[in-house]
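RETRY 2/3 - previous attempt timed out on the joint model. Re-submitting the same 612-residue input unchanged.
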Amino acid sequence: MLRNLPFILFFIFFTLSCDTDEGQNQGYEPTPVNIAVPAIFSQLLPAPEIPANNPLTEEGVALGRDLFFEKKLSADNTLSCAGCHKPNEGFSDQRRYSVGIDGIPGFRNSMPLINIAWNTKNKFNWDGSANSLQEQVLEPVVNEIEMHNTWPNVVATLENDAAYLTKFEQAFGSPTISKELAAKALSQFIRTLVSGNSKFDNYLLNQATLTPLEQQGLAVFLDENRGDCFHCHGSPSNPLWTDNDFHNNGLDENFTDLGLGDITGDPAQFGLFKSPSLRNLAFTAPYMHDGRFQTLDQVIDHYSEGLVFSSTIDPLMKTVAQGGVQLTLQDKAALKAFLLSLSDPSLANNPVYQNPN
Amino acid sequence: MFKNTIFLLLLLVSFVGCNTTNDDPQKALVSINFSHSFNQQAINSNNFNALQYINAFGTTLSSSKIRYLISEISFTNQQGIKTLVKDYQLVDVGEDTGLFIDDILLPEGTYLLSMRFGFTETTNTSNVYPDLNAASWNVPEMLGGGYHYMQMEGRFLDLNNEEFIYAYHTISAVQNPGPENTREDTSIVLNLGEITISQDQTQINVSMDIDQWFENPNLWDLNSLNGMLMGNYTAQKMMQENGQTVFSLDTSMGN
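RETRY 2/3 succeeded.
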C-alpha cells in the first residue's frame, strides 16, 4: 500500500493540474474589471452578483460588446442583439414587437437590458424561461423568428474572422471559439449595462430637487390605498424599481399567452409575467409584456380603472373588484411625472455602451 | 521517505485520537428548519397554491406567497449565556429560500431557543439591510418605514362562494399614516422552549401554524379584512395578538 502512495499522490497532482480548459494559454490572465456601481446602489443594494466562473474582464467585456453589436450572429448577417435592444431606447425596442431576419414579428415586447447584475433571482425573460444570463443570451441566436441561426454556424463564422480569434484569446486565454465562451462574453458586457443616473437617483443623493408634482407622484406610488406600486416595482429603498418577480397584473380575463405558466406548466402561474424595472420609461414605450399600451397614460389608466379579474390575478391587485385604484386626474398626472423622473438620459449616450465599429 | 510517511500518519492519528480528551464539551453542528402547516397539514411550495385550507372562520383559502422575517435567533445555555447565531433571516416558502439556518456550531447541552418575528424598533431602520432592500421588503416612510414582518397572500372563497384575493401583510403598527405617523413595535418575541443539543439531536424544527394567524384570539374574517392592512393600526394589533401562538418548536423531528 505504502509503496503505491507516491504513485497515487502523483496521479492526484497530475489530474488536478490538468483541470483547465482545453487549449487554454497557461499563465495568461485577462485584466479584471469591476462594474461601475452607481452611488445610490452602493448605499442601498448588495454588490452585483457575478458568477465565479465568469468574472468580468476588460477583454471579456470588450468581446461581449463586439458580439452584442455583431450582425454575423444572425443567419443572414442583418440582425444583432442591439437590433432589438437599442442603447437609445433603454436597451429595449420601441416597436411593439421586434422583427426577426425573415420579417416575422415576435409576440412580446423586447425587455430592457439594464441592471441585470442585480437580478439575483436568476430568472430571465418575461416568462422566466432562462435560468441564467448565459442561458438567456444563447436563445435569440437560434430562435426561428429572431436571428434564425445555429450556434455551430455562428462559431464557424467567427472562426473565419482573425480579429475574433485574437479577441477570444485575449478574453479567455484560448483562440478556441465556442458558443459557451461567446455566451460568457455577451453576459459580461450585458452585466456592465448599468442605469443609475436618473433625476430621482440624484434626488436621493441630495443632488437634485423634485418638483411638487413629482413629489405628489411619489406619494401616490407609495400609498397602499392609491398607487400601491411599491410592492412589485421597488421604492426609494430599492432603486432597481422592480422585484424581479412574476405577477398577473389584471390585464386579461382569459390568457392568450400563459407567460411563466407556459414554462412551469403550473396553472397557478398562468398569465404571470416578470415585473419590468420602471427605469427609463421615457425611452422604453410601448409597455407591458405584449407592448399593448403605447403611452404611460394608458398604463396608469389600466391600474386605475382597467383591471380585470382572472384565476391567477395577483393578490396585490386589491381593488380589482372596482376595476382599479380609481386615481384622480391630479394623482394620475403626478404619478406620471414621478415615473418619468426615474429615466436616466445618460444611458443612451454612454460611450462604453455604443457600437464599437 | 517511507519511514517519514509512517511517522506522519501515526502523528496525525494520535492528534485525532487526542481530540476528545480535553475538558471542553463536545460541539455539535446544528441546523434550524422552518416548516409550515395549516391545521396540521404540511404546506410547502408544491401545495400552498391549492384552494383547500379552511380557517377558523370557515373560509376556504390558498396561499400564493408566504414570506416573513425572523430576527435575533439565539440559544441561551443553562448558565444564562446567550449566543446569537443569526441577526435575521428572510423565509420565503414559495421560493424555498431561507428555510434553513445551517452550520450552527454549539457545545452539547441544554438551551432555550428564542427568536423574534419581525424587527425591534431599534433594528427596524429603513435602508440598512441591502439584501432586504433588493428583496423589496421595505415599508414606505409614510407607513412608518423600516421593513415588513410578513407578506402572506392568496385567494379565498367569499360569502358568495366566489374567489377573491387577500394580502395579509404585517409591519410595525402605524398610527396616522403619512408624514406625521407614529410607529409602535408589533414584533413578537418567540420563546420556543428548551432544546437539548447533542450529536444525536442536530436538527431543530420551528413550525409556523398558519391557521393561528386567523384564529386566536381574534377570529379573522377575510371578507372584511383582506387588503390595505399595512396602514390599519387595529388590524396590525390584531395580527400581533394572533401571532403569539403561531410559532412552536416541533420536537417530532430528530437528527
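Residues 168 and 175 of chain A are 6 Å apart (CA to CA). Closing ticket.
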